[in-house]
Design a protein that fits this description.
The structure holds two protein chains of two kinds. Chain A is of the alpha/beta class. Chain A folds into three domains: 145 residues, no CATH class; 192 residues, Rossmann fold (3-Layer(aba) Sandwich), CATH 3.40.50.2300; 150 residues, Rossmann fold (3-Layer(aba) Sandwich). In chain A, the strands form six sheets. In chain A, strands 16-15-17-18-19-20-21 form a seven-stranded mixed β-sheet. The two termini of chain A are 48 Å apart. About 1% of the residues of chain A have low confidence. Helices cover 28% and strands 20% of the residues of chain B. Chain B contains six helices and eight strands; from the N terminus they run αβββαβαβαβαββα. The longest helix of chain B has 15 residues. Chain B starts with 10 loop residues before the first helix and ends with a helix. At the A-B interface, β4, β5, β6 and α17 of A face α1, α3 and α4 of B.
Amino acid sequence: MKAKPKTVAGLPADKALALGERMYREGILPSGEPMQSVVSGDVPVAGTAFTCVSCHVRSGLGTFEGGVVTLPTNGTKLGRTRYRKYPNLSPEERKSLRVQTPAARPPYTDASLAHVLRTGLDPGGRELNPVMPRYDLKDPDMAILVHYLWSLSAQLSPGVDTTTLRVATVITDEVSAEDQEAMLVPMNNFVARHNAHASVFGTRMYMSIGGQEMRGAYRKLALSVWRLKGPSDTWASQLGAHLAKEPVFALLGGISYGDWKPIHTFCESRRLPCLFPITDFPVISDTDWYTQYFSKGYFQEGQAAARYLRGLEDPAPASRVLQIIQDGPEGRDLSAGFRETWQELGAGAVKEIRLGQGETVSLASLRTMLQQEKPTAVLLWTAAGTFDALDGLADEVDRPGVVIMSSRQLGTKLYALPEKARAFTWITYPYRDPKDEPAVSRYANSLLAGLSRHKPETRISTRTYALLQLFQAGLIEMDRNVYRDNLLDRLGMQRDHILPDFLRLSFGPGQRYASKGCYLMQLSPGPEPKLVRKSEWVVH
Amino acid sequence: MNPRTWHLAGLVLGLLAATPGGLLAQAPPPIKRTVESYTVPDVTLVNQDGAKVKLKAMLESGEPVIVDFIFGTCTTICPVLSAGYANLQAKLPPGAPKVHLVSISIDPENDTPKVMRDYLKRYRARPGWDFFTGQREDIDKAMRAFNAYIPNKMSHYPLTLIRDPKTGKWIRIFGLMSSSEFVAECRKVGIL
């Protein structure tokens, strides 16, 4: 690491750092104008189309895509001699190699960095691939960008030392002991196994093509459980106290019955990754970075309902839409998902009726709502308490043609949907079709060892299993570049994963909701109804 | 993929780990040009405005058309391919024959019409450049038809396909072209 200067291009160093970050991530010059570059030899590009982060990714550690290696551009790597073979070895380790390999280039200096960015010539005299754009920046702008690059992924993140990587999992105090156990048992088993491997394999735990290097990548895991108590507006300060006492590299999983937002916001402000919390109430954002979710939760079901209804061959059911929303976070997110998507699709207005707290729907009250609004489709975002009313509605001639309900909100009562209502009631179902759910592998089963009661319907232990798989993949690919942003970058470059619960988990730089799908289902007639798929997993 | 059991964890995964810069020599991949005949599948895709479009009819309408495969959050390759499209559009003189630039998503689950609209806006795309998503099987069919199928989007490669309106054949260009190379290819088939 370079010594920190006090001022850069006449600006205080931290101000310059923020401006450099904006150049790197948004392609905007300190003046506010877009950066200009030339790619592929002669193609001009504005920074608003793409910039450093689009290729080198957030941590600066680069990518390998389509036969193009985007080299790292973080402080540590730029400050060291680059080698093609085993690029991640420390200088000491390299000395111990039996066969020494030639250097690809010497360490960069401020001047040679500016030179390579302008001309594409590195200090070893090699001309870079024209995929790396040439940036003709003015001296002060260049100084600011170079200052940022020196600071980028220049120090291992908090929560890591040479032997251990510490993570924490957050549990809020309303979560039942049973549900806590469903997450903690597989997590503890995973950590124990990971750490036991260390004593068997030594530091060669992760063998790979770069096996030499992976030795130094392996660390034992330490897992802390952070229990949050009391009202959610006090969680941030509790989390702050935990983090001060026990700096962790990332939050792993975590479980709460309520909104994840306070924890999400904390992680965002502390630049702390939070991987796959077990929540149905995530924050929906296109730009937030630090929390990686399984899905958009209830919001995603509302979204799927909107796309499905809008995409029907027959436009009649979508012509007048009414949402009936039971009080509570489920109804809030289901209806928001529907409303926002309906607007995005340009499908016009949605009428909404909100039920008061604890208000139930009788056939008479449902009739009154329908007579007022005369909807062609009803989003009935309520629990199973409305089933009787729905049963009565089946016989009415002028009832709406389509009713949509949420399987997650109905829970296990789903299958009690009255037979007469099944033909016109669609169910949003955010998981894999139960008849396609693969058998639990031996490995997964072994992680559940010691669980006193397995309740598959909560999907807590299966989601925990999935998140541990993904965490492990991220750890391995992070290699020894143990930076928080790098963990998220590497997760963003995962191939699709087939894991329990969700049909498919897919990833991409900046994508934060791994499952993109949700079926619309109907229940088959007869005394033992089965779910019948009515839509594709993803509908546009 | 339809596995009977969830995939196994552990040591196997390590075999897949690759560090950028660790494996390959860094010469720019050479550009490979071939002329091919393709049978475009009769699938329906969805464009950035949410409109359904029949791929075969669109590509074989007889107007000049260029196809690439990208996705909204792709690094390195797609940005450069898309800069090439944007630059070509900027270079088209006012009276030039219309060319239809077609980008087909290989991440159809994430690339919703909104994501695609935002993407085109970032590249200041003009009318005539459309981005398509659809059902995964239909996208797979399109990729297969152009001999461009990849099971894992992260291992996709740069490909530009230019349809010669006179012969109906496709010029297949593997690699990233400079603007002058792209323009020269277009001229050869009478676009520009």
